[in-house]
């Protein structure tokens, strides 16, 4: 009598549909984590760029005001009691404020270029320009008083705003910073 047993059929080598779905699901979760992380890093980078621009702009304003040849009355540049865009030409905030002001020409000796806030949506302050106001009224209707104000945007709350920081209807945080 022979001792031979029937041969077992060889099992197909491969993955089942469930195993493939689990692997695809894990890969999708990992990709979403990477995408969210990269968006956060980009947002922080844009906010850091804004803070750097603001420091540069404020320094240019201070240098202009402290130069007796440029500012014999020890005032900031621009038209008094008028909100102005810090850009060479055009309008900003949907055409509400003039960018053809003397402010860009006055700051030309102190800034190589007028910085533009990083942004993605046309018509938003962060896309068009930084705003500057010097005067005796409250043009923004925020109860912040008179003086010289620089308005700048950020995507996240602004812990380093030395003025009034608030979130507007477009979801962006704006700092209304009084220049001293």
Task: Write up what this structure looks like.
The chain has one domain (17-179). It is 33% helix and 17% strand. It has three helices and seven strands. The strands form two sheets. Strands 1-4-5-7-6 form a five-stranded antiparallel β-sheet. A hairpin with a 4-residue loop joins strand 2 and strand 3 (97-98). It comes from Candidatus Zambryskibacteria bacterium RIFCSPLOWO2_01_FULL_45_21. It holds the Pfam family N_methyl. Keywords: Membrane, Methylation, Transmembrane, Transmembrane helix. This is Type II secretion system protein GspG C-terminal domain-containing protein.
Set down the secondary structure blueprint.
Elements lengths: L16 H50 L17 E2 L5 E2 L4 E2 L3 H6 L17 H4 L2 E5 L11 E8 L8 E5 L5 E7 L1
Antiparallel strand pairs: 1-4, 2-3, 4-5, 5-7, 6-7
Shape: rod-shaped
Structural class: alpha+beta
CA radius of gyration is 28 Å
Largest sheet: 5 strands, antiparallel
Secondary structure: number of strands: 7
Instruction: Please write the string of helix (H) and strand (E) elements.
Output: HEEEHHEEEE
By DSSP (H or I, 4+ residues per run), the number of helices equals: 3
How far the N terminus sits from the C terminus, by CA atoms, comes to 108 Å
Q: Kindly report the average pLDDT value.
A: 81
Query: What fraction strand?
Result: 15-25%
Strand order of the largest sheet: 1-4-5-7-6
Give the fraction of residues assigned to helices. Answer: 25-40%
Number of domains: 1
- Unreliable stretches (pLDDT < 50, length at least 5) are none
């Amino acid at each position: 009598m022979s001792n031979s047993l029937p041969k077992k059929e060889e099992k197909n080598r491969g993955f089942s549909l469930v195993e493939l779905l689990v692997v695809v699901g894990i890969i999708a979760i990992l990709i979403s984590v990477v995408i969210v992380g990269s968006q956060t890093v980009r947002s922080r980078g844009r906010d850091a760029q804004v803070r750097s621009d603001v420091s540069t702009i404020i320094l240019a304003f201070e240098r202009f005001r402290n130069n007796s040849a440029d500012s014999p009355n020890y005032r900031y540049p621009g038209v008094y009691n008028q909100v102005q865009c810090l850009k060479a030409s055009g309008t900003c905030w949907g055409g509400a404020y003039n960018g053809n002001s003397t402010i860009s020409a006055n700051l030309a000796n102190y800034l190589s270029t007028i910085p533009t806030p990083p942004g993605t949506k046309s018509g938003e302050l962060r896309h068009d320009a930084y705003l500057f106001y010097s005067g005796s009224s409250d043009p923004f209707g925020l109860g912040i008083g008179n003086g010289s104000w620089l308005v700048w945007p950020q995507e996240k709350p602004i812990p380093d705003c030395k003025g009034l920081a608030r979130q507007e209807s477009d979801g962006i945080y704006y700092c209304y910073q009084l220049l001293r």
